[in-house]
Amino acid sequence: MAARTPAAPLRILHPHLASRRIYRARVREPPAWRLNYKIGTGACGSVFLENVHILGMMEFPEFGMESPELTLWAVKRIPRDLQNFTFKRYKAEIENLQALASHEWFIKFNASYEDTNYMYIAMEYIPMGDMSQSFADGYRWNESDTKVVIKQLLHGLAIMHKEGITHRDLKPENIFLYLPENQTNVLRVKIGDFGTSKRIPPSNASTYLKTTTGTQGYMAPEVHDTSQPKTNRVDIWSLGCVLYRMFAGSLLFNDPVQVWKYALTASPLVLDSLGFSAPCVSFLRGLLQPIPEDRPSAEDCQKTAWIMAEVPEPEYSIGKDLYTKLSKINRQAPNVHSFPDMAANRGVNSSYVP
């Protein structure tokens, strides 16, 4: 059994001790996890919602007690015999999550565990789930709300790329949304599912990404060419495809043939007729440059006119229409106080893979 990574510092939920910080937390061992409430299935396994009991020792020993905390974790279970998913890849996903753990733009890593048949990665649970749920009933984001998400994704990508990490599968299903408590009309974003991510030390400039991986509709032209090296600019292309999907309500490219045709002929993208503002069109065209070297870095994107334009207060505020829609989605999710300890194989049709 591999040693588990210690849980991050947690807050006591006891009303009289809520301000006391836990400096040590003990979690029920993974073999005791029930893993019988499935919330998603992906290419690399299934994700379960687990009711986790944590006992934390107070930082003030005079209390001489431990106080229990109940919380929900999203636990990804990966079969050991899964084709194309090696133990090395499993460890790399954990290492990348840990490297980004101190930043607010990413799903938090809680623990890992391996047994004879499976590998497990336990992460924080985002009740609202991923962005793809917002597209139900043909919903299209307006430009202002779209920018709220793109700005936060750029913060995350800039940090990732500085760490030498390329996500390689940025898409709505891997972008998680949440509404902070006590902040009306504010939307926050986290990037998740680092199963295909790759870390290359920034000092090793001679090393490139070689593997073809990603999701159709969000893959850059160079990804389809197995002979061509890839860089973190594949994430910038994917960001452009996400932006288009949010605003236009459909994919920009439905298959690799359309991507190749665009890349080879440099045929102009039809963007002006969709209602994008001129700064937004300019921003999007930059992200979707066929040649990787012509795409801006995440840091350069943050300096563009569209991103730098003034936004309403508070920061990351969205319109009432979108806030109402997301609030309904949020209310439908299980929470730590109502989730049954014995959920008898209840499944939820979702792509939730943090």
From TrEMBL:
Give the matching InterPro entries: Atg1-like (IPR045269), Kinase-like_dom_sf (IPR011009), Prot_kinase_dom (IPR000719), Ser/Thr_kinase_AS (IPR008271)
User: From the UniProt record, which GO molecular function terms apply?
Assistant: ATP binding; protein serine/threonine kinase activity
Q: What Enzyme Commission number(s) does the record list for this chain?
A: 2.7.11.1
Native source organism of the sequence: Tuber borchii (White truffle)
Q: What is this protein called?
A: non-specific serine/threonine protein kinase
What membrane topology does this protein have? Answer: Peripheral membrane protein
Which Gene Ontology terms of cellular component type are present? autophagosome; cytosol; phagophore assembly site membrane
Q: Does the keyword DNA-binding apply?
A: no
Q: Which residues form the Protein kinase domain?
A: 33-307
Top-level division of the source organism's lineage:
Eukaryota
* Assigned keywords, A-Z: ATP-binding, Autophagy, Kinase, Nucleotide-binding, Serine/threonine-protein kinase, Transferase
Primary localization: membrane
The listed locations are: Preautophagosomal structure membrane
Which Pfam family name is an example for this entry?
Pkinase
GO term, biological process aspect, one: regulation of autophagy
Q: Which Gene3D superfamilies match?
A: Transferase(Phosphotransferase) domain 1 (1.10.510.10)
